[in-house]
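Researcher: Good morning. I'm working through a list of sequences from a screen, and I'd like to move beyond sequence-only analysis. For each chain I'm collecting a predicted structure so we can compare shapes side by side. This is the next one on the list. No need for commentary yet; just the structure.
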Amino acid sequence: MSDTLKLLSAGAVKRGVAQLAEAFARDRSCKVEVEFMQVPRLRKRVAAGEKADVIVATAGAMEEFAASGKIVADTRALLGRSRVGVVVHQNAPTPDVHDTEAFQRALQSASAVVRNDASSGLYIAELLDKLGLTAQLGNRIVVVNSGSAIITAVAERGAGAIGMGQISEIRVMIDKGCPVKLVAPLPEAIQNVSTYYAAAATASSAPDAAAALVRELTSAAAKKSFAATGID
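Model: Good morning. C-alpha cells for this chain:
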C-alpha cells in the first residue's frame, strides 16, 4: 500500500470522512491526507487535472467525473445523504418553519438571511427566487463562502438572523460551541437532499489502496458513523 493517500472531499460530510480516514490510516499504517472544499471548487480542481487517490462528491459531480474518466466507475459507491436545515442564534425565539408558508413568514421577518455559494447555497438562491423572496429580502440576503461561515454569520448577527445550511455542518459548529441552534430541516416540500458518493480516482498511483479506502467510507459500519453526524 502507498504510504500516503490523497482524498479530496466535499465539505458537508467532513466529520464522518475525517473520522473514517483517520481510522483507516491507523489500521493500515499509512497516511491519508484529506482536503475538504465546496463541490464547485472540487469540480474545477479535478477537471483541471489535479491528482488524487479518492474523491468524495455529490452525485452530479460524480457523473461528470465518470464521463470524463476521472474516477474508476466500478469503485463508485453511495456514502450518504445530507439535508438542509434552518439555524438561528441560540438565544433567538425558535421560528415556525413546519411548512413552506411558515418558512416564508420566518424569512420575511428576519434581519438577515444567510446562505453560502456552494451547492446547497445555490439551491437556496433558486428557492428564494421561486418563493418570490429575493426582491423582498433585498440586501438582507447575506452570501458567505462556506457552510461553517453560515453558522458563524448567524451567531455574529444575533437573534434576528436565519441561516440555511447542511445539517451535518450545523451540528459540527454547535459541537464546537458556536452559539446557534438547529431549528429543523427545511419543510419536506422544499427540502434539498444532496447525495454523496466516494470513488477511487483513475489518477491514483495506489489503486488497490484507494479502492480499499472507498470501501471503508461506504461500508455498513461507516453508515452508522455518518448517521451520527447528520448524514443518512
